[in-house]
Amino acid sequence: MHLSQVRRWILQSPPVEWAILQLRELLIGALRQGPIPQHVAFVMDGNRRFAKSHGIETVEGHNLGFEALARVLEVCYKSGVKVVTIYAFSIENFKRSKYEVDGLMDMAKVKLGQLLQHGDLLDRYGVAIRVLGQRELLKPDLRADIDRAAEMTSRNGDAILNVCFPYTSHDEITTAIKNTVTDYTKPLPAHQRPFSESHIKQTILSRHLSVAASRIRDRSGSPSSGAASDVEGSTSSSITLHPESPPEDPALLDKENEDSDEALRNTFPDPESITAEVLNNHMYTTGIPPLELLVRTSGVERLSDFMLWQCHENTEIVFLKCLWPEFDLWQFLPVLVEWQWRRKKIAEQGPISRLPRRPGEATAKPKMR
Question: Structure pTM?
Answer without folding.
Answer: 0.74
